[in-house]
């Protein structure tokens, strides 16, 4: 089971297809990427049209390119002030790296604060603000002056002080097993960052783009970050990351030093065309409408499955706790045998993940549930 080693030759909508007619219902969206399903025709058309115009023409930022401008306008139209300026990069972890640099550049400080249970990526900087020590230990030393507070714990907010450049938090923790904070803690977090002059960086690489039932998870808590980090689903299946912040902050990358943050393939025109198209689909097809209600109904069904101890859910983002990691393995194997793709969490081994495309129909969900209900857990 490590890895799945499925041979996939085609994907369409919520389905993956093998070379000999095998068919699998993708209930993890390629781990949070295919929120709009696989191969949405509007996104494919935008990609094809951009390929016919041009591919890479210059290092990001040197030329004015229409696909970059369109992507930025479409994205910022979905966001509140002061999140009005975009820096597109190649992946979510690269966007985290840019956010960490921006926090230090904007404040002149070095201290970074993250959370227990955090997962922000696998490059050295993003790994430094992630929590799983098993993943980090072979690569130490990592970047210095990183400190961890307990997620959703008001008593630890004092760790954010006048030495702190930035605080990076997943609005809803993903790899820790879909951990949803209290609104009161989120408001206290925002106030504390304001009090000491630290940038609040919210990582919505997984929980953004409608996954949690609203376009951005932070909308549910009534706060706005200083910087928003996006990736995964933003380009409808193409590789992308994006750091969004106020212009006054991102302009700091233009001087002292010049090109304070730069990447050759960042803002690639084909990727940006896909970003713009994906955002247009969300608006035109009202993709997010009803996701939270449907997610709650699905969670109620999941709680009745054999061996399930707890279900945490927000929108179409589920963590299902079993008795043991062994039972999780059994469930994931059972699902694959039934033609369903589920997955696990690296930092929450007793829980398995479901995060289907937001386009999943009620009929497709019921098809999956009949097969999930056939699971017979071994003692564990």
Describe the fold and architecture.
This protein is of the alpha/beta class and 380 residues long. It folds into two domains: 10-35 and 287-372, Aspartate Aminotransferase, domain 1; 41-285, Aspartate Aminotransferase, domain 2, CATH 3.40.640. Helix content is 33%, strand content 17%. The chain has helices at residues 29-32, 41-53, 66-76, 92-107, 124-128, 133-136, 183-196, 247-250, 269-285, 291-302, 325-337, 362-372; strands spanning 10-12, 15-17, 23-26, 85-89, 111-115, 146-149, 164-170, 199-203, 227-230, 241-245, 310-314, 317-321, 340-341, 343-344, 351-354. The strands form three sheets. It has a seven-stranded mixed sheet with strand order 4-10-9-8-7-5-6, with helices on both faces. It has a four-stranded mixed sheet with strand order 1-2-3-13. The longest helix is centred in the C-terminal third of the chain and has 17 residues, at 269-285. The model has no long low-confidence stretch (mean pLDDT 96).
CATH class of the largest domain: Alpha Beta
Main sheet, how many strands, which sense, barrel? Answer: 7 strands, mixed
Q: What's the number of extended β-strand segments?
A: 15
N-to-C terminal Cα separation, in Å?
A: 18 Å
Kindly report the name of the CATH homologous superfamily of the largest domain: Type I PLP-dependent aspartate aminotransferase-like (Major domain)
Q: What share of the residues lie within helices?
A: 25-40%
Radius of gyration: 21 Å
Instruction: Report the total helices.
Output: 12
Mean pLDDT: 96
Q: In percent terms, what proportion of residues is strand?
A: 15-25%
Q: Give start-end ranges of low-pLDDT stretches.
A: none
**Secondary-structure arrangement, i.e. CATH architecture of the largest domain:** 3-Layer(aba) Sandwich
Structural class: alpha/beta
Total individual domains: 2
Strand order of the largest sheet: 4-10-9-8-7-5-6
């Amino acid at each position: 089971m490590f890895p799945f080693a499925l041979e996939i030759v085609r994907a369409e909508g919520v389905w993956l297809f093998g070379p000999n007619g095998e068919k699998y219902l993708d209930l993890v969206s390629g781990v949070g990427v295919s929120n709009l399903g696989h191969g949405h025709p509007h996104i494919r058309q935008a990609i094809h049209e951009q390929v016919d115009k041009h591919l890479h023409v210059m290092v990001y930022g040197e030329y004015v390119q229409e696909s970059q401008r369109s992507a930025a306008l479409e994205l910022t139209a979905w966001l509140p002030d002061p999140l009005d300026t975009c820096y597109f990069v190649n992946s979510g972890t690269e966007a985290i790296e840019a956010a960490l640099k921006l926090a230090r550049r904007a404040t002149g400080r070095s201290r970074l604060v993250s959370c227990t249970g955090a997962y922000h990526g696998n490059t050295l900087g993003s790994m430094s603000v992630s929590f799983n020590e098993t993943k980090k230990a072979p690569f130490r030393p990592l970047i210095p002056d990183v400190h961890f507070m307990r997620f959703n714990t008001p008593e630890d907010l004092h760790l954010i002080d006048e030495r702190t450049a930035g605080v990076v938090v997943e609005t809803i923790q993903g790899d820790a097993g879909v951990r949803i904070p209290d609104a009161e803690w989120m408001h206290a977090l925002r106030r504390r960052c304001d009090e000491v002059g630290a940038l609040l960086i919210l990582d919505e690489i997984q929980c953004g783009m409608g996954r949690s039932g609203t376009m951005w998870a932070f909308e549910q808590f009534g706060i706005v970050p200083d910087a928003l980090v996006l990736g995964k689903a933003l380009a409808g299946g193409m590789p992308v990351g994006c750091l969004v912040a106020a212009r006054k902050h991102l302009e700091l990358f233009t001087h002292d030093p010049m090109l304070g943050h730069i990447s050759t393939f960042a803002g690639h025109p084909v990727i940006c065309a896909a970003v713009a198209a994906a955002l247009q689909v969300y608006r035109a097809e009202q993709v997010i409408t009803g996701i939270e209600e449907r997610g709650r109904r699905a969670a109620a069904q999941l709680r009745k499955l054999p061996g399930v101890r707890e279900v945490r859910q927000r929108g179409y983002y589920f963590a299902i706790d079993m008795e043991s990691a062994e039972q999780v393995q059994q469930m994931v194997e059972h699902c694959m045998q039934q033609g369903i793709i589920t997955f696990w969490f690296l930092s929450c081994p007793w829980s398995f993940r479901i995060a289907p495309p937001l386009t999943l129909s009620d009929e497709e969900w019921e098809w999956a549930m009949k097969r999930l209900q056939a699971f017979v857990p071994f003692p564990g």
